[in-house]
Amino acid sequence: MAPASSPRRMCELTMIHPATELRFISPEIGYGVFAREPIPRGTVMWVLCRFDIVLSPKNAAAFPPPYQPIFECYAYTDGAGRVIMCWDHGRYLNHSCDPTMLGVGGDFEIAVRDIAADEELTCEYAHLNLTEPMECRCGAPNCRGVIGSTDVLTLWPDLDRRMAEALPFARKVPQPLLVYAPNAAPFWNWVDGRAPLPSHRDYYAAAS
Ligand SMILES: [Zn+2]
What pLDDT, on a 0 to 100 scale, did the predictor assign at position 205? Predict the structure, then answer.
């Protein structure tokens, strides 16, 4: 397996961790994002970068009708009410009720546990402000069965705890993705305790 920094992989660098790739899972699930090598807890896995498309709800709704199912499938709404369409394979991240990565503020996601080579990367859709409930068959022992748009209002203490436990590892592991963050300073302020940690509770857009 080629290291992430090899020239062969340079053209595949995206604003999701470079040691990841898109793989087809099944006709029912579609694609998912997988680790090509072990990735340690605390690694920044995704950043909101300059290529991602950020729209107001009004501007997203003004796109012609054929575009709207694409928003439904691939975009999400953040806690500030912004509609985000990831330009990279971040938009293929699947949900798990026991996700490998969680948000740190709206612009970063970190690995909340060690990720093995060939393991699928997963995130928590509870904080993406789903417009419709989603059936979940993630297979995790704590699978909720249905992912709802208000789940984050009850899950946030546990999500915050897992994020806070993983964050101190951020200083101890390589961070190849942070150079693409428009502003990495807030992330390091949270890691180093110079600013209070953001809460997943604030991802609920209706609260903003
Ligand atoms: Zn589940």
Answer: 78
